[in-house]
User: Fold Oxygen sensor histidine kinase NreB from Modicisalibacter xianhensis.
Amino acid sequence: MSPTDHAHRQDLIARLFRDEGELARLCREKDWSQTPLGPVDSWSPTLRTVAGLVVASPAPMILLWGSQLVQIYNDSYRKVMGNKHPQGLGQPNRICWPEVWEFNAPIYAGVLERGESFTFENQRLILERNDSPEEAYFTLTFSPVADGDGRIDGILVTVLETTETVKRRQAEDALRESEARYRESERRIAHALEIETVGVLFFDMQSTFLEANDTFLRMTGLTRDALQRGELNSEMVTLPEWMPSTWRAFDELKSNGRFTPYEKELLRPDGSRWWGLFAGAQLSQNECVEFVIDITAHKRAEQARYESEARFHAIADLVPDMLWQADPEGQRVWVNRRWMEYTGQSSQEAIGYGWAETIHPHERSTVLYKYRRAVETGVRFRNEHRMRHADGSYGWFLVEAVPICNDDGEILHWFGSANDIHDQRMTMDRLEDLVAERTQSLADSEERFRLLVTTSAQIIWSTDAQGCASEDSPSWRAFTGQRVDDWLAGRWQDVVHPEDVTPSEQAWQRSIGTGKPFEAEYRLWHARSGHWRWTMARGIPLCDGVGRTLGWFGTNTDIDERKRAEEEVRRMACSLTMAEQEERRRVSQILHDDLQQLLYALQLKLRMVSNRLILDRQRTLADMVADTSGLINQAIATTRQLTVDLSPPILKTEGLGDALEWLQRQMRELHGLDVQLLAQRAMPPIDEDLRVLLFQIVRELLFNVKKHAGVDHATVELKQSDTHLAIHVEDEGLGIPLQAKDTLQESGFGLSSVKERLRQVGGTMKIDSAEGHGMRVHIRVPWRPMQTDNDTEAKWPGND
Assistant:
């Protein structure tokens, strides 16, 4: 855009949004060309007029324009936006307000398609304008806005928030309803005071008794005369050891207006003791109510049950078997002494499902499944499994559990035992081992046969547990031409491409050491064609019942055609990069040889005209010509810089490190971005097409730092190994949120194109960023083409 056009646009914006408010200022500063509306000078007269009126209006308004309903609003509407401001200015309405799109969509359709107007009074909406859902009410009007030709291009919405009014009305209604409920509550309380099983006591915040029903007086043995004289309080009826619990309840009452129900023991005037369950709440500033239930009989029954259980546990500790008890859900609540002595667990460690830790790891999941199934169905549990001794050894036990039920058939608890059967089980195992030894050979042969059938369409091979060939592989020898003696001697590496021997051998040894499946890509000699061909090798371990590796079975799949196709894609990507660079050079050449020369010639002509005008004393015209000459100087400087930006000459003659040093200077001088460049001193040369691609990627990433990171410095690190080139671009700027990282890698800031171009040449890009902690981009690309062509003159390594 020329300076004249720019000045015209700024003048238009200033006249359109001339108000002094915040939104008028934001509208003047906003780059509208980055919104769906485009630059302001491209707006229709209607849009300009209505937008100016909306921004200047004191009433809360918002204008929605175009097919995407782009938002323009004023200062009065600013409060409605909440935290969505100022991002919502110039934003499509659906993106800004997705939470109310279902309500708005049919209204917008009626206005735009049929020219209808709508009014809603006290409309309830759930908005997320302050980062969390909130209920709000509005009186809304939706009116169509037609362009000069009568076509409806926009919607004018007036918005009056009535949330406070509506909620005040709702509060008044709730108050009236609360008063009615209070009167009803008083009536119910009066009836409650007559209940004969619940004591009711009213007291003040100093614990002085104010009023009580007859039930409470009967429980405590107190008289109504003493109550009416105000002589009674909590300390008179509570045993000293229970007063701390009483004061804690008072503190909770003062803090929360109620206290958690609790039990305590009390003393009657005649010296007898009784137990009560207390719950209370604060009624007013100095009045509280407490409800009391006499639980003396329950506590006595509980004590008797405790004594009975203690006698049972004492007897159970004398039994030589391991005994235990569980609740109705199967959670263990008690184990006897024999359990703790044998397993080494404490009673607390065995509680719940902690006892399961003593089961042998290979059997634990099965035992737990059977046990939980028995608990769910209420049937007897019986199982044989190994349990860990305190010394770490394992022994076999017969474990049984039975449910104990009440008269209604409901399970009250479970009782179980574990009987030592280790000696019997060892005898049975020895017998089974004798049978297993005679059948193992047949079982191994059957398993190998099954795997061979599964992989019969590939190169098939097998080894022992140490990775040595255990039998002949006709398919391997048919593919490679290797002799059977060499294969059985473990010299399979002899027919592997020399560059692939070390990585494939390392991968194979890792799998043998860890027992994890083997997978690797390497080139094998193809005897029939006399070429090296790429294959995918996969191997799986054959294990016995306890996880020991008995041997390995595997296949090699010919993937040479796939690798050829991948290399062709990389070659095409490189050609595309070079074609793009060549086009840049061509455009740069046109700018330099044609346009700049014309501008120089025009500048010379203007100087001649200026000199003539000065001689003719036409100073005004001479000044105008001088101004024009100045603009031409700017145009020459711009085209000169554009020539360099399109095709930096250094890319043609120097290496990537020199090109990045040139880019470092350009970013500092032209864009104010200070770039720290870290590169190896001596780097081998790389192909021009890859050099051009990497230069363009680094330049694009540095432009992103300047535009979006909010900092004026960045770091570029360049490393080169024998096979790969690594580039790291880092800044300490604004960064990106974690939830937006995947979206940025796919579509943001042109990075999707960068990622795809890298993939086509076998490279990768990783973005590491967090909001407020900068961004780091890691690029890794092979700098030598992968060798996939089959050299027709290659010699089979087995025929020296």
Summary: The chain has five domains: 3-161, 193-299, 320-426, 460-558, 653-800. The chain is about 45% helix and 25% strand. The CA atoms of residues 357 and 364 lie 8 Å apart. The first strand starts at residue 61 and ends at 65.
